[in-house]
Structure formats: structure tokens, C-alpha cells
TrEMBL record:
Domain Protein SirB1 N-terminal per the UniProt entry, residue ranges: 54-203
PANTHER family in UniProt: F-BOX ONLY PROTEIN 21 (PTHR31350:SF21), SI:DKEY-261L7.2 (PTHR31350)
Pfam family, one: Transglut_core2
Family: Belongs to the UPF0162 family.
Name of protein: Transglutaminase-like domain-containing protein
Alphabetical list of InterPro entries matching this protein: SirB1_N
Superkingdom of origin: Bacteria
């Protein structure tokens, strides 16, 4: 399979400008954000390709029955269309592929991580008028149908990674227990916002790259997009600085380390000094 090459610098700068604009808009669009992430990861995804994804999502939505009924009927209709007829699902091997985190690739391969398959489910369902939302269970993203405020028996969860299988309460409990060792808490069923979904997708990409030192380029663009989100951990700046040093950009990496040390100094002076020592070591590599 063709390796994913990054876009040229001018294209990347434009994608990031649009990403920053979208995440700060009043109603960020999930499909748009996922496509901008995809275009940053795959330079072959141009504007025509991004339009094609939108058209395909519209086409799939048009194949759903008109208002099939309540939440359970919607879940079954999506499962029959996307899981059975179209073959969208996931398996363990999908966790080893960067393509599994890129929406345009998931639409073509019909394989992906739970969260990307859930994005397909949500965006197709939303276009068809379904009451749908994402549920960021620890370790496994699923889709909810119905109104979150309703009683538990009026809400339905489905697992797109498993072809859209409708989950019982016990199924959801087991998913959380397997991921965390702790019981399911009602707060875990809160609908995920588009920005929370995108942040989790970028976290997955960073985790994929973290165990592949030769793909520090992927780790860097993923952390830089994460830094454009309105809310992000300050430690991402430290991660970016380390990646710059790892990639041989010692001067910029040292500057980032010093900037992060200034932030940390207010709460942990010894930690700040350790970071400044890393900055000095990075500068020494220039000699």
C-alpha cells in the first residue's frame, strides 16, 4: 500500500489556518475537522477528494429508510446499511494502521478505529435526521441514539466497530470494565462534542506515532493540530519541543523547552529547572 506523504508546506499552512478557524467557530463541523486532519496526514487528499467524502456521506444517508422509528429502529437501520450492506467494521489489525484514523481512508476501506467508524455512523445518521451522538467510553468509542436526557431504557448504544451491534447495558459495562477495570459511570455516557471527538482522534494518532520513532513527522503534525484546539493540556507544548529536538531542530526545540519551563516554574520549580537543562542540552547539540 502507498505510504502517506505529507502535504507541501504551503498546503499544510492553509489546512492549519482552516482547522484553527473551524475549531473556534460557533458550531464546529465534525466532518470538516476530520477531513482537515486527513489532509494533513495524506498530501494526496485535495479539495476534490474532500468534496467526494461529503458526497459519499450524503449518498449513504439517502439509502436509509425515511424516519424508521425510535432510537432502536434508527440504530438497527444504520447497522443494516453500514454494517451489513456496506461492510463497515473494525478488527485488531486496524489499530496498527494510520489510515484507520483518517476519515477519507476509512470511507474507502470501510475499516477503521472505533472512533472513526463512529464518525461515519454519526455523520450519515445526522444527515438522515436521526437523533444521534457520540459516546466516548474509556478505550472504546460508540454511538448513541435518542435524547441523552431521556431515561436509560429510551437510549440506545451501538458499536460501529462491531458492525453496528446494538449494546445492552451489560455490554457497555463490560467494555468499560475491560478498558479501565472500573464500573461504568453515568458521566461516561455524556455526548461527546465535535472538539472532544477530534481531540481523541489526534490523541490516537499521536499514540500510533509514539511507538514508531521513524514517524516523528506524524507525531509532530498531530501535536501541532492538537495545540490549535481551544482547550488542550499545557504539556503538549513540552511534547512538541521534544519532537523538534528529536527531529534535529535543536534551536526551536530549545526555545520551546524554555517557554514551557516558564509555565511550569509557577507551580514546580525543580521540574522547570529539569526542563531548562534539557533546553541547554539541545543547544549544545548545535556545536
Amino acid at each position: 500500500m502507498r505510504s502517506l506523504d505529507p502535504p507541501p508546506p504551503e498546503r499544510s499552512a492553509e489546512l492549519r489556518r482552516r482547522f484553527a478557524e473551524e475549531v473556534r467557530s460557533e458550531r464546529p463541523d465534525l466532518t470538516t475537522l476530520c477531513l482537515l486532519v486527513g489532509a494533513e496526514g495524506d498530501g494526496a487528499l485535495d479539495e476534490a477528494g474532500m468534496d467526494a467524502v461529503q458526497i459519499e456521506l450524503d449518498r449513504l444517508a439517502g439509502l436509509l429508510p425515511y424516519r424508521p422509528g425510535g432510537p432502536r429502529a434508527w440504530a438497527r437501520a444504520l447497522g443494516e446499511l453500514l454494517g451489513e450492506r456496506c461492510g463497515f467494521h473494525g478488527c485488531a489489525a486496524d489499530y496498527q494502521r494510520l489510515e484507520s484514523s483518517l476519515l477519507h481512508k476509512v470511507l474507502v476501506r470501510r475499516r477503521g478505529l472505533p472512533i472513526l467508524l463512529s464518525v461515519v455512523w454519526m455523520e450519515v445518521a445526522r444527515r438522515a435526521g436521526a437523533p444521534v451522538y457520540g459516546v466516548a467510553l474509556p478505550g472504546h468509542f460508540v454511538v448513541g441514539f435518542g435524547t441523552p436526557e431521556r431515561q436509560e431504557h429510551e437510549r440506545v448504544l451501538a458499536d460501529p466497530f462491531d458492525g453496528g451491534r446494538v449494546l445492552t447495558g451489560a455490554d457497555a459495562e463490560l467494555l468499560v470494565l475491560g478498558a479501565t477495570g472500573a464500573p461504568l459511570h453515568p458521566s461516561m455516557l455524556t455526548p461527546a462534542t465535535p472538539l472532544e471527538v477530534v481531540a481523541r482522534i489526534l490523541n490516537n494518532i499521536r499514540a500510533w506515532a509514539a511507538v514508531r520513532p521513524e514517524r516523528s513527522d506524524v507525531a509532530l503534525w498531530a501535536v501541532e493540530l492538537s495545540l490549535l484546539l481551544p482547550s488542550h493540556p499545557a504539556r503538549l507544548r513540552y511534547e512538541r519541543a521534544q519532537l523538534l529536538v528529536q527531529r534535529g531542530d535543536f534551536l526551536r526545540g530549545a526555545e520551546e523547552l524554555d517557554a514551557y519551563a516558564d509555565v511550569v516554574a509557577a507551580v514546580d520549580r525543580p521540574a522547570a529547572e529539569r526542563v531548562r537543562e534539557q533546553a541547554r542540552s539541545a543547544r549544545a547539540m548545535l556545536n
